[in-house]
Please model this.
Amino acid sequence: MVLTLAKKYHPYMIDLRRHLHMHPELSMQEFETSKLVQDELTKLGIPFEIIPGSTSVMATIQGAKPGKTIALRADMDALPIRELSDCPYKSQVEGTMHACGHDGHTAALLGAAHILTDLRDQLSGTVKLFFESGEEFGGTIHIAEKEGFLQGIDHCLGIHIWADIPVGRISCSPGARMAGTDLFTLKITGKGAHASTPNQGIDAIVAASSIIMNLQTIVSRELFPQEVGLVTIGKLTAGQRFNAIADEAILEGNLRYFNSALSDEYPVMINRIAENTAAAFRAKSEMIMHTKGTPAVINSEADAAFGQKVISRLFGQECLYDLPPLMAGEDFAIFMEKVGGLFVFVGGGFPHRESAPHHNGHFDIDEDSLRLTAALHAQYAIDYLNAQAK
Model:
C-alpha cells in the first residue's frame, strides 16, 4: 500500500521539488519555503507549529491508535552556490541553488505526509514531521530542544538523498555515518616592517604558512593509524600591502572526527604545534576560538538492523547498499543523541550519466529518489510505531 501511494504522489513530489529548486533560499531565510510547507500541511489538515527563532516547522499526524511518537526530518535550506546546469527547473536566484538535495528532502517528506494521512488508521501512535531550517549552518535542532519541541519524541529518522549512491539503492549501516565537526581560529602575531628590511620585522605570513603545513602531521603522526580525522585550514587572512611584512595572520580551520574524544584532544595538539612553530619564527600563536560543532552521526546496531528489515520488506534485500562513513557533518546527530534514532542514505545518482558531487554547481538528483524516500519515511514510521505498540 505504501509503495502504491508513493507512486500516486510521485508527480506531486516532482512538481514540489522543481518549484523549490527554482526558488532556493539560504539558511535561516527559508521564508517562502516554510510558507509552502505550511500551505501544503494546511491542505492536508495537519496541525503544525513554527519553531521560534527560525523558519522550522513541526507538524503532527495523530494516529488512529495510541502509542509512541516518532519524528521524521527534512532540511529546507539551499547553498550560496551558482547553478551551472541548464535544466528546465534551474535556480532563478543568482548565486543560490539547492546543491545538496534539501529541495528533494522537503518534497519527499510532504509526499510522506500524504501517505501517512491516507494510512492514519495504521498508525499506533504519533508522527512528527520536522521541516528544519539552517541545516547547512548548524541547524535549528538545538532551538527546537530549547523550546520544548523534542519533548515526548521517542525516536527519529533522518534521510539524506545521496548522489554517490545509484538510484534504487539505500544505505542503512550501523556505526559511524557522518563526522563530528568543530571550528577553530588561530591568531598569529608578528611585527610589521618594510618588505625591503624583513630583518626588522617578524613575518606573520611565513609563520602562519609553516603552522599550516605542520598541522597536517596531527593526522599522519599523532592520531592512531586506524583513527579517522581531518584538520583543515580553510581560510588564511593576512597582510595589508604587497611591500609590507605582515604583522598578523588569522587562520580559520575545521576539525572532523568520529571519536568524540578528539574534540577535546585536537585543541591541545593544535596549540602545541602552532605555538612552537610560531616561536621558531619569533612570532606568537593564540587559539582565539574553538567551537564544538555537530557530533558524529552514529547508528546503533539495533536501529540499523530494524531499518534494514523495513527497507528489505519494502524494496527487497538487493536494495541495500554499502556506503563508507562520510566526513561531512550533519546536525541530525544532535536529534539522535537526544531521543535516539536512525540516519539513512537514499540513492539519488543517475543510472545512465555521471552525477555531480554535492555542493557542486552541476548538482542534481534522479527524481525517482523522491518516491523511494517518501515511501521509506512512511513505512519506517508505521513499522516503528507498530513494533513499539506490541
